Amino acid sequence: MEYKSDIEIAQANKMEKISVIAEKAGIDEKYVEYYGNYKAKIDYNILKDKASDPDGKLVLVTAITPTPAGEGKTTTTVGLADGLQLMGKNVSTALREPSLGPVFGIKGGAAGGGYAQVVPMEDINLHFTGDMHAIGTANNLLAAMIDNHINHGNELNIDTRKITWKRCVDMNDRQLRYIVDGLRGKANGTPREDGYDITVASEIMAILCLASDIDDLKARFARIVVGYTYDDEPVTAGQLHAEGAMTALMKDALKPNLVQTLEHCPAFVHGGPFANIAHGCNSIMATRLSMKMSDYTITEAGFGADLGAEKFLDIKCRMAGLKPDAVVVVATVRALKHHGGVAKDKLNEENLEALEKGLPNLLQHVKNMTEVYKLPTVVAINAFPTDTKAELDLVEKKCNDLGVNVALSEVWEKGGEGGVALGKEVVRLCEEPNDFTFSYDVNDSIEKKLTDLAQKVYHAKDVAFTKEALKQKKQLKDLGFGNMPICVAKTQYSFSDDPTLLGAPEGFTLTVRNLKVSAGAGFIVALTGDIMTMPGLPKRPAAEKIDVDSTGKISGLF
Length: 558
Fold this sequence. Notes:
The protein is built from 19 helices and 25 strands. By secondary structure, the protein is of the alpha/beta class. The strands form six sheets. Strands 1, 2, 3, 4, 5, 6, 14, 15, 16, 17, 18 and 19 form a twelve-stranded mixed sheet that branches. A four-stranded mixed sheet has the order 20-22-23-21. Strand 24 and strand 25 form a beta hairpin. Helix 4 crosses helix 17 (420-430), helix 13 crosses helix 14 and helix 14 packs parallel to helix 15. The radius of gyration is 23 Å and the shape is globular.
């Protein structure tokens, strides 16, 4: 069989006009703002008008610890929605917007793959409806207002050595991690050390995804801590009177985006924080909108279940009052063999010994979902032609031992038809009662919350704090920020903070090197290991293969 690339499949698809998709989703035209023929923003006032309507079921799709072999989490999410639609269910999906960093870097796009994609794929992966631009501009307006305030007398007594607010750009650019700006004399500002984050790591992105309405958005902007005075008092965006202008820049970005899958299932794609350096979930507004308009909402969270799912459950669900009805943990036989020590060029060969060695990674994620968070769970094996019956049987047996069923997902090759088996299990699980709980008590101390999270979810032995983090921990407690959820910035490649520790390591110490408050988002960020909030491009970035012809047709975008 000849396989087409993702972009070739997407470009060959005949999309429905977005007005048809909106009607299918039950959205009255008065709420629809068109961005061409195939994209729209939905007026958030629909949520107020639909407030008394019942919510549909909420299904979270997560995955094992990622490897270069790939897991297909977004592909499974989209294919599951299409499968449920084939079963006659009223369903929509809620996804994150891709960042240009991975698109031009090593990971590529984030619109699904094969015959389970959201479209228009090129638009979604590139500028889409301008949300990323709005986020970056609001972030950088605040940065400009900080330096302008200092330049014009510094009435707030801001210590330039203690400014925590960075500029941002939606690109992997290691050159911008640490910079010095304000050079060449007083007319050009005050010289200081500065730096850039990637836009998806900006607190503006987190606030967009956690805000409940425009008034909440503005209030959260005002609470942002941008730095500290010479007396170590926090300085906020509200004190700089920046929140009004920032909200004006974000008023359209706050509206969820509506697109469609290849099989014309409604898809709300809105917000895109990374899960390794941020909280990894699409916007609460898009999720709520999907739940109001559908009987089943299929959503996903970034990277493995120790990152995206943990933050979805401990941060997003806690703040929004959401209760998931079921969890899907995606795995591939190839990725599990990689966790078992098999080199990438040998993953197509049957290797039961390596598979058994790598299986603890999957089983640990499953146990976290079922025993820590107490949620009904199914394992979806994203099928590859090279998977053997013996390998698939071994995965099924080990999962069954934990009381969890396994469903084969063939959505990459077959679209919705390949997601029906998984869909049937998801429908069954959604009818089961569950005792959803969090992994830590938000009112505990910062140290206790981190310890509970590290021991229960990562399976660490202990948590250690650097000297700087200990100082920050005390400061955050003294300032009244101690009762917030924790957002851990950690490598996506391991349960631990060491990316080389594959499988299911135990007994390690998680080292917290930095703690900072994201007061607008409403959580404390704990940076561990060598995690960077501004990634870099690989030696051969994907950008080298992307092109556009004289007709405007894009190629090389995968």
